[in-house]
Every structure is written in C-alpha cells, then in structure tokens.
Design a protein that fits this description.
By secondary structure, this protein is of the alpha/beta class. Helix content is 44%, strand content 12%. The protein is built from 14 helices and 9 strands.
C-alpha cells in the first residue's frame, strides 16, 4: 500500500488527507528511501540540478507578537533589540549585489516602526539602484492595503509560513491571533499578485501525523511559489523551552512530500536543518530542496536575530557565508545559480515578465 501511494505521488502529485496520514504512519526505512529518491528525481525533472542562492537580510528583531516558540517574541526581555535603518539595508543590498545576489530577502519581526511609507520608499530605492533584482518581504501580517502598496512599489515576493494548519494548535502557539487571519493574509497576497512563500514547522508540541497531513494538504491546495519547512528547535527563553524539538528525519520526510505534492514550488534547505546537523542542508538538497539563503545581515547584529538558539553562520561574514554554502552545494554534486529567477508557477502566470528560472 505504501509503495502504491508513493507511485501515485510520483505520477499524479496528489494524495488525499487520509492517504497522507496512512503514509506517515506506515513509512519504513525502505519506503522512506523510495520517497527520497522520488522527491530528488522530481526536483531534477522540474528544476534540474540548480540550487538558487538568495541573500537574506534580517533587518529588525523587534516583534509585536508573542508566538510561544520564538526567541524574539515580544515578552522576551532578554533580547537585545535592534533595527537597521533603510540606508543600512541598502548598503547590505549593495554588498550582496557585488557578491552576485539577484534576490534580496528582507526579513524581520512584526515591527510597527517600519511604516508603510518607510518600506515603500525602501523598496523603490532598492529597485532604483538594482533594477534587475527581486525583492522578497518576510515581515508578517499587515493590512491588505499595505501589501498592495508594497507590490506596487516593486516588491515581487512575500514569505509568510502558516506554521501549522490545525486551528486549535495554531491558536495555542500564537496568542491573540487565529489561523483564519493567517490564511486570509496568504490569500490576499496571492490575489494582489505576489509570488507567495508558505510553510510550516515540524515537531511542534501537540503535532502528530494528522496535524502534519493537514499542513501538507493545505500546501497542496494553496499551491504556493515557495515552501519553507524547518524543524521546531526549542529556545530556552520561551514557554516551550523544555519541549522536545523536531528531528532532521521528520523534516526531510516533509520536504520530500512537499516536493512531490507541489512539484513546481521552490523549497529551501533551511538554516534550522543545518543547525540540527552539520550536513542538514545538504541532506535537504538531496530530497528535493533547491534554494539556500546565505546571510547578508551585518555581523554586529546578526547574533541578535535568534528565533532559536545555536543558530549556525552567525559568526561568518557575508563573503564567507556565500563561499561556504557554494562549496557545500558543489560538493553535493549540484550547481549554484545566482540569477534573480522566479518560480516555475509564476513563469506560467506571466511568461513575458520572467526571464529565467529561480526561487524566492
């Protein structure tokens, strides 16, 4: 039965919720290897052997939210907060452009200091100086009109993971918010025309096969341009500090299944996986992932952006970070692609505006 389901996934890229639950509860070592092989082959069929590098700029660790798992949650008084000024963010982009990056991922907590006007001006400045780059925002929930203004200013992509598609678990982990609000934001981003990135955490307290199946079916139905899946890693200064975290194996299974269910999406090999295992990112690349986001955040503030502890690469400068990951990718037998790029799905939507394959 398991092998039949894997064959169906490979050919049809479709499973029901019940079939996914069955698969997750009956995978053995042999069928897991088959899953990984199928996911790797699907990535090659859709994107070839290229791995797309995107420059990550973590420009603020201030956040108004109190997500129970997050190290920069508003209630964590031990965090040394920082905000980068727009001119500092532009300088990071200038340095990254010189290193060859053609996508900049601007990530922060939900920081109200960055008003719509400030971000619109920043987006226009980046596009004005570097017209051939793509801008990805990862700044959390905002009003619809804010999203619209960012897109009109030139932002191309927006990353916002749903984290868990189980409404009860979502509400428990995200005080004062609801899964309905998060889904509404994702749908608004798609309606506006952003290339949308979604995803979830693996190994959350209270998460089992049924909850993970909900995550995968949600991704299947949303069909985002990018899917970010990483392990839950407990942080000592959060309410979940004594909980058991996710594992590399669990996460790799989810990455592989996401590749088969949404084969034209881009999947990053996350830093969190590299934190759990020295070759975690390489393992993800071997089971369907094809995006890596080296860090362009200035060294003086990089250690302060700790969603989880013991994060790798916080001591490296941007040049070292890029050289290290490029070496790792090539050692895995894959090819680095520095192009701006877009997801295959977005290229089908707007073929005249897309010039090369790529990632968020």
């Amino acid at each position: 039965m398991v092998l039949n389901l894997l064959e169906k996934l490979l050919v049809e890229h479709e499973l029901s919720y019940e079939e996914i639950v069955y698969l997750l509860t009956h995978l053995d070592d042999a069928s897991e290897r088959t899953l990984f092989q199928y996911a790797h082959q699907t990535r090659l069929d859709f994107y070839g052997n290229r791995v797309y590098l995107r420059g990550l700029i973590e420009f603020s660790n201030v956040c108004r939210r109190n997500c129970l798992y997050c190290g920069i949650r508003a209630s964590n008084q031990s965090v040394e907060r920082y905000r980068m000024l727009p001119e500092d963010i532009l300088q990071c982009c200038k340095h990254g452009y010189g290193l060859g990056y053609r996508t900049f991922v601007l990530q922060s907590g939900e920081d109200p200091w960055y008003t719509t006007d400030i971000l619109v001006s920043l987006i226009r400045d980046i596009k004005g100086r570097f017209p051939d780059v793509a801008i990805t925002l990862s700044i959390g929930e905002r009003p619809f009109l804010d999203y619209l203004a960012f897109h009109k200013a030139g932002a191309d992509r927006f990353l916002m993971r749903h984290e868990t598609a189980d409404g009860v678990l979502y509400a428990r982990l995200h005080p004062g918010t609801s899964l309905r609000e998060r889904i509404a934001s994702l749908e608004a981003l798609k309606e506006i025309g952003f290339q949308v990135g979604d995803g979830f955490m693996v190994g959350l307290p209270g998460q089992g096969p049924e909850e993970l199946a909900k995550d995968l079916t949600f991704l299947r139905d949303l069909h985002p341009d990018m899917i970010g899946i990483g392990p839950f890693i407990p942080h000592s200064q959060t309410p979940l500090h004594d909980c058991e975290g996710g594992t590399v194996r669990q996460t790799l299974i989810m990455v592989a299944l996401a590749r088969l269910l949404v084969p034209d999406a881009l999947l990053p090999a996350t830093t969190a996986l590299g934190t759990l295992h020295s070759r975690g990112r390489e393992q993800a690349l071997s089971v369907g992932a094809n995006v890596v986001m080296p860090n362009l955040t200035p060294a003086r503030v990089r250690p302060k952006y700790q969603l989880y502890e013991n994060k790798i690469c916080v001591e490296e400068d941007s040049d070292q970070c890029r050289s290290c990951i490029e070496w790792r990718i090539e050692l895995a037998g894959l090819k680095v692609d520095m192009g701006r790029g877009d997801s295959l799905r977005s290229m089908k939507r707007r073929p005249s505006e897309s010039t090369a394959m790529g990632a968020i």
